[in-house]
Records
---
Amino acid sequence: MALTNEIVKQKLTEKFGDSVTNFEEPFGMLTFEAPKEMNLKVLQFLYDDETLGFRFLTDLTAVHYPDNPGRELAVVYHLHNLRENFRVRFKIFTSIENPDVFTATKLFAAANWMERETYDFYGVNFIGHPNLKRILNVDEMDYHPMRKEYPLEDRQRTDKDDEMFGRGEIFPNQA
Amino acid sequence: MQDHHIKLPEGGIEKHTNILNLGPTHPATHGVFQNIIELDGERIISAESTVGYIHRAFEKIAERRPLYQITPLTDRLNYCSAPINNIGWHLTCEKLLGIKTPKRVDYLRVIIMELARITDHLICNSIMGVDAGAYTGFLYLMQYRELAYEIYEEVCGSRLTTNIGRIGGFERNFSNTAFTKLEKFLNEYPKALDEFNTMLTRNRIFMERTMGVGGISAEKALNYGFTGPNLRAAGVDYDVRKISPYSSYEDFDFYIPVGTTGDCYDRFLVRDQEMKQSLEIIRQAYRKIQEFKGAEAEVYHAEVPEYYLPPKEDVYTKMEALIWHFKIIMGEVDMPKGEVYHSVEGANGELGFYLISDGGRTPYRLHFRRPCFIYYQAYEELVKNHLIADAIMVMSSLNLIAGEMDA
């Protein structure tokens, strides 16, 4: 039986009830969300279940949404069932004051460096990670540069403001 | 006769291990990254890898750049096969924008991507030879990479960091010279590759250096997120070109070579066979391109005026074309909202682009899934209990490209 978005959705709802939410299908890829305390339970279920079998971690990264109070950081897992060639995207949201998320390194060895990268750039604190330190930036760096509050260019520059890029003011406090 | 042996008191020699820094600028690392290796004599007890020496913050930069200005950033990921990165990025944009490309464009892209795969594997395999002590093969095959680079040059004007193609197709049609050069490459390269293989594949020294070195089981490789030739060497036939075809790969007849033990020798053989498959794909694509007749034979891009630059003659003479030229160059075209993951089979494995657009003119977030970065973390485990000379072989057989690792 080939996997479809409906089967995965149904399986998840059966197992976790209303905890797994926000089912979407952008460009055909099933995307869903769970509370951050449950990330390992969901990943483990997706890994172990006979029909689901999402045993390949394709990608792990984070996204910063400064305008979502309490849900500023999203950690995004891309999982792949290689046998059925089926992909899903799984997201958890965490607040920026308390960015503690359980590590997936016990399940996927590949998560080790990807989580270090996510920590390095977004400051997501992966609890239980064997070696959570910066990976691409220098160790002395004391901020997480991919967060949106750090603009790419010198703020003194006036010739290139964000309105040029169709967004208007996104850093109103720092004008 | 005098006794030359040093006489030390009982318990005078303490057993200790040595720490060796391999990199960041060691000639054998072929790139800027560091391995701190703990040695007991010549045997490796533990290793720790440090990456990030050439981190250039591409993901941050991309958040302030319109789509076309991101293409040159992708060049600098895996710079041994830049066209695959460029075309992979354009395919991602096309997925977001809902652009369908004509068949001829797909086939032209396949030719360029497979040429890039060959040039990448060619370097990796010949560098393996260099690290095992055979420099000649490297210099010999390098001449044939030159032939492939001349084809890129004919199509896009540049050679290493190509910035090839546009959203929807290519910047210009392939000239007759490009096809002549392609024929020359197809005629000459297989012979050179055979000669190269005569030197290495059954070479006793090379086999002893590579067989049983740095092996990895299929389960472990999958758990470590291996993709590409390194995963296939371990026996998993995962190839994005087959499993989720893009750019009309489903029209081509080719097979995926797999290994069994996942050691350096298997990786070498898999790359070698892949080059042969790539040559076969290029031949098929070239044949298909010759079958197009009339107006179809001149198609080299999709009709997407919002994203495809108008012809230069029009820009100089027509107002409308000038406006579009300006808008596209300055990136003043809003993207649709959306969240896209698209992957292509890069020379090192699954090269993924995760693009989130909030409807602005630049990506809200762009993440590159760099295969090299993900599988390099297995290096510490691969070299454990091997000799230091083997560590070098493992490194070159994994085809670690610092640009791709550090993004």
Note: Residues 5-149 of chain A form a domain with the Beta Polymerase; domain 2 fold (CATH 3.30.460.80).
---
Amino acid sequence: MNKLLLLFAFVMVFFNAGAQNRFFTKDAKINFNSSTPLEDIIAESNQATTFIDIEKNEVAFSVLTTSFKFRRALMEEHFNENYMESSKFPKAKFTGKILSPIDWKSEKAVIVDVKGELAMHGATKEVTFKATITPGKSKVTATAELKVTPEDFKITIPSAVRDKIAKEVTIKIDAVYAPYQQ
Amino acid sequence: MIGIVVGSAGVYYVFNMPHRNISKENAVYTLEAKQLISDFKSDEAVATKKYLDQAILVKGEIKSVRTLDNHSMVFSLEDEMEGVSCTVDSADVVSNSSKLSQFVKGSTGTFKGRCSGMLMDIQVINCVPE
């Protein structure tokens, strides 16, 4: 009888450990805007993969740089070939932590601080930004906005076009996470 | 004078050049999704070099079908998490709707698209069904 109880306790612990602490999506939206009065430069990818671990308050993003779509094919070509060098550095990644306390059971939107490392084009830089997270049992949504400087990631922009591209690029993230079942 | 006209037409064309139309390109590689997965799993760097930005024709069992909020569709071949994800843009969803309606979970699908590399899954974008 004791053994059975022990087994039962073990099973309970096991299932609890397997309780939902990771949320994920493969279809997160990332867009960036480096427009200037001289040129509209907007690109978007719908294919970012991202995880949130609600136990550790950790968040991770990754996106393939060739999945960004531009209005002009020429811009897309320049982005991949000259600036991001996508064949050499095919991915951009972010891993970080949610610094502000968050009640994952609340289902109420909260604004939090996120800090972590953004890696692209062979360079890594620490970034902090604000994100709005709406927790939920079956769905977590998150939006965030951050600004980066191309030069911080060793992306050199020829002086002839430097005035056409914003000094600071605004990156916007929009993700709807589902529970991650493995 | 003619030089100026031709030159400016050239500049205009390059500036406004159309996006790649994968559906009109011949596939550089034709292969099973399983082969593509094993190529990427055995050496991601080598596979990325080989397949990145190439037009490929890939065939496999459809494990999931999703429609994104921008109306593009994603078909996961062989494995939902770590398989091959073929994305069909919304305009191509409309023009290939009858073919795509047969591509249900459990059936075999063939897509031509542009390989953009691997995250958890291998991504093939700008896909059209074959």
Note: Helices of chain A lie at 2-17, 73-83, 159-162.
---
Amino acid sequence: MAMKAIAVPKPRDTLQQSVLPWLLGVCVAILAASAIIIGGWLAINGLTSLLAAVLSWTSSGVWRPLTATLFITLLALPIAALVGGLAAGALADERIFGAGVRAMRRWLTLLGSIPTIVIASAIVVVAGAIGWQPTLTGASLAVAIASMPLMTALAASVIGSSASPVGEAAIALGASPAVVVLRVLLPRAGLRFGGAITLGATNMIGGAAVVAIAAGALAQGSSGQDPIGAWPLAVQLWLHAPVVSQYGATAAGALVLTMLLWLVQGFGLLRATPTTSTESR
Amino acid sequence: MINVAERLFETGARTCAILVVAIAPTAIAALVIASALALVRGTPLVDAAGFFQLGGATLGLALVSATIGLIVGGGAGLYTMEIATPGLRQGIRALAGALHAVPAVGFGIVAGGGLLYAVHKPTAIVVFGVAAATLAINIGSIAFVQMRRELASVPAGLREAAAAAGADSATIALDVVLPSLRKRIAGLWWSLLATAMGEGVALQVIFAAALARVSGVVSPHASSAYGTFATLLLEQGATLRGTALFALAPVALTLLGMTVAAVLIGRRAAGHVPWP
């Protein structure tokens, strides 16, 4: 029998050996410099206006827009998390959908590629056809719908990562799908499921497109800001970004929003405990 | 014996899964019907030439930013996780985390501010260059996180075997880990391309700032001068109300087709396209 020769890789030459890690270092430098430049730019332009923005209770300050952000998030997040969590539970136990579950999982990954702007456009087209003009309350429903695929994917990955052996053991012992999901998989996912919800919340807090489209942020005579009377902070920043005279206030708002997202994201990552050795490095 | 609560859970879970999976077909159906109605009415949002111009800008910006973003973010991820010392790794991860926390509108405000305060009025090439660079950094921060996730999937035994054979960390990263991830990185590029095509907020702020700097007109409607499908959808979606919104549908449907095509081609080429 002919033996197949094992190809021994040739050692790279010294130049290549030193240049490639150096190029990777340049990539790190670009990313790090971007973070410093963005943070520095917002701080330089926004710090002088930050105090005025923090002390003002008008819609041009940060508190009312933050209240609107909180309003949207508090309404949309429980809906998206509940539907996403339950959907992920259905996809975790193959007995709930049978053979169709694999197709549904593949379809779900395809859903992730659809831009939220397109989903928001479809929602607002339907709203326009039936003569509905959403306010912030209606916009939060649009945000919840647009976030459902993401929440499902996050929840499915958290539940799925702790599924195989324990879930199979529970099924072998005769546990029903509800028991497997609720008493075996979810408790094992534990805090990481909370982390997934927190990460979903950052998308709602930082996202401007869905609310702007659904509530008609640029529409004439729009009452989209009701019932809070202010746009969420991300939408507020988007609306005023090109105005030179208000640039300081806009930069201050962007600084506040970034800090808020950084805190929420950090909180989410702390809860989402890494599972692999590489992740924890 | 399955009790009522368990049966309720199963029904609820099944309903929710169907609801989530039905979002895309429902959106497509609504957009197809609205497109047909918009065509019958003859009130397009843009003419044919404008449509191709927007499509070209969308694809061009997405191709450039996905490629640069993957190189920068992926390369930084590889260096951080495989080559950097533990102290340096912590520092890079903190900075990358801070960059990842910047919302899309924040990227737009910084780049748009640069254009607003520029000494010279920016030309169209400069505006698209700034837009591509901003989107590339935004995408790069996503690529960094995705690359870390892909690196975590590489079996530790592979690294240990290479280390036992005397390879240093750079050799392991470039000759062992990177080749094992070739297909997954290709899938990541397609995922980033789809993400870049759908990004509208940051680009719209940049285009509006450029328009304000060039013409002195402060208007959120910048897509008449510069734009992509996503920025046009954002502007017009936030402006139009009632049945006038039907005019959005052909643009939304085209963008949807482009992003889904990117994922499907990516799946065929790379086998797997990760969630953006």
Note: Residues 273-281 of chain A have pLDDT under 50 and may be disordered.
